Amino acid sequence: MAFLDSNLIQKLFSSKAAQYEKKKTIIDTTFNRALRRGLIHLLPISVSISLIGMNLKHLYIGPDLIFLSLTTTNSLAAFQIAAKIQELLAVASMTTILFEVIRYQLLYGEGLPLGLLSSGFTFSQFEFFSKGTWVWFRSNSGIWQKSFVLFCLTFIAVLASVIGPASAVLMLPRPVVSSRSTPSP
User: Fold this and answer.
1) How many domains would you assign to the chain?
2) By Cβ atoms counted within 10 A, which residue in 2, 4, 105, 145 is the most buried?
């Protein structure tokens, strides 16, 4: 019974390293930390803005789609791969936003049910919205916080399911039909 000796257990858990362990910060409000958290949003936003800008200006690459000396089919496949990468970056950005909402609710709000803690991983699956974690929203306490969480979950889920096809359509080059190019009688 020497392994159950209280002195031995006390010696194991009261080492000098444990006495001098630095306390961990839960909330870091420095500017550098906020800047690092925001960098994940920079690339998807800049790609989306440039795609929307090119489509609004009716920018057309050309009839041959000369893209790294590839054929038309390979060029279109390269655009589809780029659209998929942009979709993954945008979903990662939205997941980060959702985890920040969850983190805020855990630290400052009334908490969340255990099933909603992993919602940042499962929000893009429609089965997520049919599970029993929604009983939490029916109680009357903290109705504004719960409405905000529900809005964020729903909005980000819809946006994540639409961003893929939308970016694929925006990336496909298409000719511009101009009213100036038609001959007048």
Assistant:
1) 1
2) 105
The answer to whether residues 125 and 104 touch, using CB atoms and an 8 Å cutoff, is no
pLDDT digits (tens, 9 = 90+) for 124-168: 676 766 666 666 677 667 778 888 888 888 898 888 888 888 888
For residue 105, the one-letter residue type is Q
Of 44, 23, 143, 145, which is closest to residue 86 (Cα–Cα)?
44
CA distance 183 to 185: 7
Which pTM was predicted? Answer: 0.69
| Residue at 25 is within a domain | no
Positive or negative CA dihedral for 159, 161, 166, 168? positive
Give pLDDT tens digits for 36-85: 888 999 999 998 888 788 777 776 555 545 555 556 677 677 778 888 89
